[in-house]
Automatic annotation (TrEMBL):
Organism: Streptomyces showdoensis
Protein name: Arsenate reductase
Pfam families with a match to the protein in the record: ArsC
Similarity comment text for this entry: Belongs to the ArsC family.
GO MF assignments: arsenate reductase (glutaredoxin) activity
Keywords associated with the record: Oxidoreductase
Keyword Oxidoreductase: yes
Amino acid sequence: MEIWINPACSKCRSALTLLDAEGADYTVRRYLEDVPSPDEIRAVLGRLGLEPWDITRTQEAAAKELGLRDWPRDEAGRDRWVEALAAHPKLIQRPIITAEDGTAVVARSEEAVRDALSR
């Protein structure tokens, strides 16, 4: 199991605390420093069953500067979104946990972390 975190994020710290309390075996990826490639983002999206706009933090300054609200949310625009997430990793929703069964969850709640642990 791997968890993508921003150490400054309280949701990430809460997820790590719960993983530790449950004795989970996991690897931490500080995705602002170890930026995922477009292909890694596509792979995680596939595991999540989501589209790139579903995991984009649209309230971030970079999102506003890029004008993401006006970008099409369709198959034709998908790669543009993925490239934006790779170029501006702060836009990626966090934390993301990749589960042992090949799936993933955006673990913003205790329930989501427990869901990842049960997979």
